[in-house]
Amino acid sequence: MTGEIVLPDAAGLARAAELLRAGSVVAFPTETVYGLGAHAFSEQAVAEIYRLKNRPSWNPLIVHVPTVAEARKLAAEWPGTADELADRFWPGPLTLVVRRAADLGGVGAANDTIAIRVPAHDVALRLLEAAGLPLAAPSANRSESLSPTTAEHVVRSLPDVPLVLDGGACRWGIESTVLDVTGATPRLLRPGALSLRAIREVTGRVALPSEAVLDGSARPSPGMSKRHYAPRARLVLVDEIINPDKSAGLLSVDERPDAEVLGDDPEEYAADLYAALHRLDDLGVATIIVQKPPATEDWLAVHDRLNRAAAR
Ligand code: TXA
Ligand code: MG
Questions:
Q1: Is there an atom of ligand 1 within 6 Å of 35 CB?
Q2: How many distinct structural domains can be found in the chain?
Q3: Could you tell me if residue 219 is inside a domain?
Q4: Is residue 88 domain-shared with residue 182, that is, in the same domain?
Q5: Choosing a second label site near 202 at 20 to 30 A (CA), which of 4, 216, 244, 254?
Q6: Are 253 and 143 found together in one domain?
Q7: Is 214 domain-assigned?
Q8: Cα of 23 from ligand 1 centre, angstroms
């Protein structure tokens, strides 16, 4: 049987751990989005993630571990900045890119760096403990499409996934922030749930991707392709929604009766963004018109996702 959604009780976790140890994949909740997990250092298990997602082989995966100590084992170098950031934000929605320990195999074997995080979700942490394996886990959706924030989203996008642990809706609703700490100045590779403001409180400076990267026309980290996080419908960004086509789905910051309204708080907006796009897609509309949120740094991750969703 495939696409089975189970509760993350002792029996559900035991089944999931058994599948993972056997080299299969399992979808599980994290505080950001649902992940499609597999033993990070099994070539065969990792290959199954790429196959199910139809993910291009050049796009490396994030490895999830339960503790900082486990993270350090995967790194050839663990800079002081990584320690400070991990101390402050792990478990949490921050992924650190560090130099990769030699001879790991599996995820990103061709790279000299590795992306690691400790997720802040009870089910994810219990699963990591039960499986006793570092888990590679990209978002549990077909490559380029909307990320899943519920177990149902996972099954709709990946009907062939053997098992999904149901942890309800994800708290942050948007992927982790990816930060490269291999150089003298930490470098933002993907804006995400953890704000730059919070990171700067620990590191001082953060090097930002260029405008071209943020609007999707250039790529800082392999996964940052121009089109990504996209609904089935064509997504169009506008400054104001004025006399929209009656057949279009609408996503608005401002209150209006004919639209999905996500409001003007960037964290609340992000938390419901993918779910709102899933709902609009479910209406079967050909076009989704999205009112651009404010152009301030607090909205960086939301703009990044909307721009990529709108790219063609
Ligand atoms: O919130 C998240 O990060 C979710 C949950 C499941 O943890 N995972 C997630 O994974 O978003 P994924 O595979 O959809 O995105 C991973 C991102 C990609 O942009 C990828 O290119 C980047 O991390 N990445 C992975 N390894 C890297 C590396 N060694 N160097 C630079 N970027 C890397
Ligand atoms: Mg993804």
A1: yes
A2: 2
A3: no
A4: yes
A5: 216
A6: no
A7: no
A8: 21
| pLDDT for res 111 | 86
Would you say residue 90 lies in a domain?
Answer: yes
Q: What is the pLDDT of residues 215-249, one digit of tens each?
A: 555 555 655 567 889 999 999 999 999 999 999 99
Domain that holds residue 45: 4-203
With the most atoms of ligand 1 within 8 angstroms of its CB, the residue from 34, 113, 139, 229 to mutate is 139
Tell whether ligand 1 has an atom less than 6 A from the beta carbon of residue 30. yes
Whether residue 248 sits in one domain with residue 175: no
Give per-residue pLDDT as tens, 130-146: 999 999 999 999 999 99
Instruction: Say yes or no: 141 and 267 in one domain.
Output: no
pTM of the model: 0.95
SS (H, E, C) the chain: CCCEEECCCHHHHHHHHHHHHCCCCEEECCCCCCEEEEECCCHHHHHHHHHHHCCCCCCCCEEECCCHHHHHHCECCCCHHHHHHHHHHCCCCEEEEEEECCCCCCCCCCCCEEEEECCCCHHHHHHHHHHCCCEECCECCCCCECCCCCHHHHHHHCCCCCEEECCCCCCCCCCCEEEECCCCCCEEEECCCCCHHHHHHHHCCCECCCHHHHCCCCCCCCCCCCCCCECCCEEEEECCCCCCCCCCEEEECCCCCCCEECCCCHHHHHHHHHHHHHHHHHCCCCEEEEECCCCCHHHHHHHHHHHHHHCC
Specify if 215 maps to a domain: no
pLDDT for 107: 75
Least distant ligand from the CA of 34: 1
Whether 49 and 184 map to the same domain: the answer is: yes
Q: Which residues surround ligand 2, an ion (CB under 5 A)?
A: 139
Interval between CA 6 and ligand 1 midpoint (Å): 26
CA of 61 to the centre of ligand 1 (A): 5
Clarify whether residues 190 and 247 are in a common domain: no
What integer best gives the mean pLDDT of the chain?
Answer: 94
* Beta carbon of 273 within 6 Å of any ligand 1 atom: no
